[in-house]
């Protein structure tokens, strides 16, 4: 606790959020933040920066609505999906009174956001979400206002079937918003819950341009829901959340040609993921590989020290504590050359593992 008498207790108690990028690491191969390896070269020519931007740029909203097969009033553009999470908590939860439900292990921003707004966490497990009955899930959700389902889940890659999401939304009608975080849905588009939006007033879908669309630096996301769900959020969001520059780049990224090119990249990355999974499964340095649907693979190392060996080789991946064990690692799917660095690291590890076995025998 600090000695600052001005700080509310919940803010004083916050741990600094440690994102993949906030850790000061050095390296040459960056596979720690689930970014796309594809670099866009962008030319922009903007002449009206003396004017305030359109609060919700129509060119972007219309293109995203087409892409998501929704109407324009069902699309809200935000500064990343992260801002969508924050707006949902700020709009729908009452401080010190309401709670949000989440299924651990999962994306860290739900808890960070709830903590900053003095909203309680109802921490449930991925096992309950995936293997539990809908009745058990609804009982455990209790009176939580928001239910966050990360699908596919970061960092485990697991998928909650659409039927289950539908059953949960049905049971929670008028009781809670079911928020499906689809940051990685482009890697398995047939699993999207966006088709439930017209049918369910309590289904919200979060999307981003940061992953498959290769624009993490742009800070653009979308909150998708029925117009009546978005209306109060539109009162809470900052007046000019999207800069003219960002709107121009986002509109280009959502042109039909750009979407085709994104889908082509996704096909390549999904194929590389299969190759990486095979290498990992065959490696004696890896104990467990979580079969993931996103642009990443999560695994348990036989020896936590292998992570440090990778860092020495300039290979940066994301270390995780999962299930109380601090020897998990998440590898983002990079390009072929980047994954070759992972192979070099793995080959080095299995050599030293074999040597150790020989020394023992
Ligand atoms: C990366 C990620 C986000 C954040 O997306 P931004 O649009 O970059 O804010 C949200 N949810 C999940 C599950 C993510 O992995």
Structure, briefly:
The chain is α/β, with parallel strands linked by helices. It has helices at 9-12, 58-68, 80-92, 109-116, 126-131, 134-141, 162-171, 227-236, 244-253, 256-282, 305-312, 336-360, and strands spanning 29-31, 75-78, 99-104, 120-125, 146-150, 177-181, 203-208, 221-224, 286-290, 296-301, 315-322, 325-332. It has two domains: 9-34 and 258-351, Aspartate Aminotransferase, domain 1; 58-254, Aspartate Aminotransferase, domain 2, CATH 3.40.640.
Question: Layout of helices and strands, plus pairs?
Answer:
Layout: H1 9-12, E1 29-31, H2 58-68, E2 75-78, H3 80-92, E3 99-104, H4 109-116, E4 120-125, H5 126-131, H6 134-141, E5 146-150, H7 162-171, E6 177-181, E7 203-208, E8 221-224, H8 227-236, H9 244-253, H10 256-282, E9 286-290, E10 296-301, H11 305-312, E11 315-322, E12 325-332, H12 336-360
Parallel strand pairs: 1-11, 3-4, 3-5, 5-6, 6-7
Antiparallel strand pairs: 2-8, 7-8, 9-10, 10-12, 11-12
Helix pairs in contact: 2-9, 3-4, 10-12
The structure holds pyridoxal-5'-phosphate (PLP).
Pyridoxal-5'-phosphate (PLP) binds near residues 81, 82, 150 and 183.
């Amino acid at each position: 606790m600090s000695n600052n008498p001005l700080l509310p207790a919940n803010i004083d108690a916050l741990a600094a959020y440690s994102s993949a990028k906030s850790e000061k690491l050095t390296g040459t191969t960056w596979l720690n933040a689930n970014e796309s390896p594809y670099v866009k070269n962008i030319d922009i020519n903007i002449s009206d920066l003396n004017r305030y931007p359109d609060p919700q740029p129509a060119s972007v909203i219309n293109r995203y609505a087409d892409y998501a097969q929704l109407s324009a009033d069902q699309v809200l553009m935000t500064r990343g999906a992260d801002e969508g999470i924050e707006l949902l908590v700020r709009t729908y939860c009452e401080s010190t009174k309401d709670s949000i439900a989440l299924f651990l292990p999962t994306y860290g921003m739900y808890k960070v956001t709830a903590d900053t707004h003095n909203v309680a966490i109802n921490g449930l497990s991925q096992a309950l979400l995936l293997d539990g009955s809908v009745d058990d899930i609804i009982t455990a959700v209790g009176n939580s206002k928001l239910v966050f389902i990360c699908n596919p889940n970061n960092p485990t890659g697991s998928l909650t079937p659409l039927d289950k999401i539908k059953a949960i939304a049905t049971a929670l009608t008028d009781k809670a918003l079911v928020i499906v975080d689809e940051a990685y849905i482009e890697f398995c588009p047939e699993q999207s819950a966006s088709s439930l939006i017209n049918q369910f007033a309590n289904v919200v879908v979060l999307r981003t341009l940061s992953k498959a669309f290769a624009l993490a630096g742009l800070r653009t996301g979308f909150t998708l829901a029925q117009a009546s769900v978005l209306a109060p959020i539109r009162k809470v969001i900052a007046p000019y959340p999207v800069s003219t520059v960002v709107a121009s780049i986002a509109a280009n990224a959502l042109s039909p040609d750009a979407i085709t090119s994104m889908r082509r990249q996704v096909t390549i990355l999904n194929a590389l993921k299969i190759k990486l999974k095979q290498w990992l499964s065959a490696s004696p340095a890896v104990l467990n590989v979580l079969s993931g649907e996103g642009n990443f693979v999560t695994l348990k190392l036989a020896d936590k020290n292998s992570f440090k060996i990778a860092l020495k080789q300039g290979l940066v991946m994301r270390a995780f504590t999962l299930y109380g064990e601090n020897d998990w690692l998440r590898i983002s799917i990079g390009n072929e050359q980047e994954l070759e660095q992972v192979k070099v690291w793995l080959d080095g590890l299995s050599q030293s593992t074999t040597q150790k076995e020989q020394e023992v025998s």
